[in-house]
Design a protein that fits this description.
Elements lengths: L14 E10 L2 E10 L11 E14 L2 E14 L5 E12 L3 E12 L14 E13 L6 E13 L2 H7 L4 E11 L1
Antiparallel strand pairs: 1-2, 2-3, 3-4, 4-5, 5-6, 6-7, 7-8, 8-9
Amino acid sequence: DQSRYNIETGKLDSTSLRLSYNPAKSWALQVSRAHIKSPEQLHADDDVDRTTASVIYNRAFGASNWQTTLAWGRNAASHGTATNAYLLESAIRTSKTHTFFGRAERADKNELFLPGTALAQETFRVGKLSLGYLYDFPSDSHFKFGIGGLVSRFSLPSELQSTYGSSPTSYMLFGRVKIK
């Protein structure tokens, strides 16, 4: 439901299976499959079959570290079109204070317009490219403080541009507290 801050009770009516494999120290692979009974309260009659796969690479070199994830997911609703999403993200931490990161996403979206409008049930493939930076302040305590920024650029099909713009761009500044 949309109130995700409470603990819910009820029967367990969904199933899932995940297989993970680590072929080497720096690699992690996983695939999963799930049948989710009525995951959205607003679409209570829709069950979803979800499939995911991902590959993660993590490598330390000196005081630096490189992490990359490639992932795919597919939701097949019992009433509607199956949607796919793809993700490639990577982060490089140089020294203990500087992290550069990027993320490319491509996803099929079918809830971009209000019900009853002309494009309400259409599925659109949208994309997003994000680049960012994080500075962690040097600290000897159990807490690590950082500040960073992120810029994202979206790619949209022509049918969406009159509503969302031709190339929407977003900017974000953030603070982070990390417990060591």
